[in-house]
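Rotation project, supervised by the postdoc (A.L.). Task for the rotation student: set up a whole-complex structure prediction and record inputs and outputs verbatim in this book. Inputs entered:
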Amino acid sequence: MRTLIRGGRVIDPASGRDEVADVAIANGRIQAIGDAPGDFGADRVIDADGLVVCPGLVDMHVHLREPGQEWKEDIESGSRAAAAGGVTSVACMANTRPVNDRRSVTEQIKSTAQRVGLSRVHPIGAITRDLAGETLTEMHELAGAGCVAFSDDGRPVPDAGIMRRALEYAATFDYLLILHEEEGALSAGGAMNEGAHATRMGLPGIPNASEDVMIARDVILAELTGGRIHIAHVATSGGVELIRQAQARGLPVTGEAAPHHLFLTDTDVGAFDSHAKMAPPLRSPEDRAAVRAAVADGTLTAIATDHAPHEADAKSEAFACCANGVTGLETLLGLTLRLVDEEVLDLPSALARVTNGPAEVLGLEAGRLGVGEVADVCLFDPETEWTVEPERMYSRSVNTPFAGWRLRGRVTHTLVGGRLAYPFGDAE
Amino acid sequence: MNAPASPAAADALPRHFLGLEDVSAATINRILEEATRFRHLVEQPDKKTDTLKGRTVINLFFESSTRTRTSFELAGKRLSADVININASASATQKGETWMDTVRTLEAMTPDALVIRHAESGAPHLAAGALTSHCSVINAGDGAHEHPTQALLDILTIQLHKGPIQGLRVAIVGDTAHSRVARSQIHALHTMGADEVRLIGPKTLIPAAAEEALGVRVFHDADAGLEGVDVIIMLRMQMERIRGAAVPSQREYFRLYGLDRRRVGRAADDVLVMHPGPMNRGVEIASEVADGPYSVILPQVTNGLAIRMAVLKLLAGGESA
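Outputs recorded:
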């Protein structure tokens, strides 16, 4: 299949390209940008007049729930959600059931994703067996099976000694550890950000210190061991500052922001709205501003959704008891573009945070739109406004706090390796 | 904006009674007036009325409670309602049913009011949102959030002894961080025009950002905090909080924050001393004060019955919106 994308505004943050051009795709790779070769006989032509053509989005923090909790999401429904959101690469977290702490689980995820074929799925292996924080996983074996990084996401490694060994071992092979930073004793029993709103609601609070203490610990341990760390879903101003200082000292520390932390604050919990319950919790306006500033200045090079699907029942308990997390794959692009509207970032920089930024952290061959690169491409209409309607989403769960939001920028086409992944129904 | 259909509708209470944060002074006064009438009734030999004859009230307690449950039960019975008590710890929830399914199942039995006590903040709100019938939800205490009828019985008690709340200075002493009663009290006191509400306790027992969140003044020195106040509301020191390192010992807590005769002397000459019970004598309050001339701890219990009768009448009796 040879595809010609004609006349779109081609933006490739990695190379700085931003021009109206044609993109010629053959054999799953980009053959030309600009004028297609004279002998290029396209099987399919996509008229991209008025559209932005950018690298397929890379979401480095996703929970696909398969194996084990397929009623919340499975690899097929998650892949559909990704494709509909313009996301061509997802890195999926290890807290499946069983945990992705053994080769067989990694291989199962990879083979199912390949069969579905709508998105490139990159498993993240567990740091410790069964996420118990006690025994290291066979990282080398897991990497050999396809894991691109390691994380006990949702379950921070509580023991500093184990964390040290995990970092040392990972550093032996230059593997990346992705860290959910939360000090268990400081978060114990907490349901939302500690502050005035929690006090009014009578909900137990989680102080910023819970996140900051662990980031500080792990930055120090990264320095001790030479390990590479990536801080997941940074939500506090203190956390941002710690990462900034670590980077200034030349340490291999990166970080990501989640859309909900870029747009919402703890008052969005309102009167016990469980869609606003997540870990780490929504923080103060000052924290939100700090996270935005860090995304803008490049301290945080990735925006990642922490896509965490839950069925309605899991969100129907009393606030403190209900599940943490929001879905995100289908709102990632719209919310990222909203940062442009709100003048946090210019358009190429915003797209960098969801393309080459996360791809470079994970070391993926993705997130770039250059000749010879894989043809993972997202096309969107930057002017079309749409409303977030949970009932029209492809994810099996629709626990989103953004329902009803008006967003600008609608995905029109998603190509994975030159094949049309969205709209669905391509007969290839 | 639509005009109310009738004067009665304008005066109607909200359908559910979940908390006092957004309840107007007019609504509180309506409940207090009704409670005052019932207060006289409960002193009569024949204490029953036919007010809720044919109506059904279900007390659904997902957390153990003796005095609140008994108070609601007696209030319903004195209004001639059919009252069912369900202790959820011994119910279907132990068979795996979710508590929301329990709520919906009970709703299907067509009660007029569900009185809900739950250990989690917001649980009665969730129930109220899920109900589809005319049934009203009354919050009998949710987590550390609100306990509105307890707060109103305190307001009634203060008014009966001191007149209007307007201009009074009130100190709440103890574990406000985990107290649902304190939050409801603070909202009601502000709505009714109290001059100042003070929270007194160590930092471990005062909620985060209390001054901003609740509009109170915080004192860590009990003697300074009690200076000149008109009402002292003591809160029960929960022993598990002591074990949980919120305070090092009962002995030190009583020395720093316990209410004894000397400390009462810092307050106004006609100070009222209140306590929602059950009391820990010698931990937060000395017997000489609990049983002393300023104490209205037992009248609070009587007033609680009147308040719950008033709330049940106004909601289960069909006068809510």
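Student's summary: Chain A has a mean pLDDT of 97.
Supervisor addendum: DSSP finds 13 helices and 18 strands in chain A.
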